[in-house]
Amino acid sequence: MLLPGVTTLEKLVAAGREAAEQRLWAQLAGQLSPSAAGVLLGLLEVPAGTKQRVSELDRLRKGVFRPSSKGMLAALERVGDLAVAGSTGGWMCRRRRCRC
Fold first, then answer.
1. Residue 65: pLDDT band with limits 50, 70, 90
2. CB proximity list for 40: less than 8 A, separation 6 or greater
């Protein structure tokens, strides 16, 4: 009996993973409403004409904290932004500048 080589098995496993990932993303995207998809895409955009060089998603993801009173206020404001986003099911950022 002749078994497939290692590279052949690697290719088969990679193809199976890719197919599973595509099915997963299709299922997830299918459950989004058009407005929710727009909100998520908006999080990826970097505002034009401002000094901000990162997207809102990056700003929320990083969680920069400085050990000072201003750093604590910025962290609390970020928590508030996340709480508002979670409670409304959408994105309603109150702060548009980045302090990263």
1. low
2. 32
pTM tops 0.85, yes or no: no
**Residue matched to tokens 């910025």:** 74
Longest Cα–Cα distance in the chain: 71
In sequence order, which residues have a C-beta less than 8 Å from that of residue 36 and are 6 or more positions away?
89, 90
DSSP one-letter string for the chain: -PPPPHHHHHHHHHHHHHHHHHHHHHHHHHTS-HHHHHHHHHHHPPPTTSS--S-HHHHHHH----SSHHHHHHHHHHHHHHHHHHHHTS---S--S---
Mean residue pLDDT across the chain: 78
63 falls in which pLDDT band (50, 70, 90)?
Answer: low
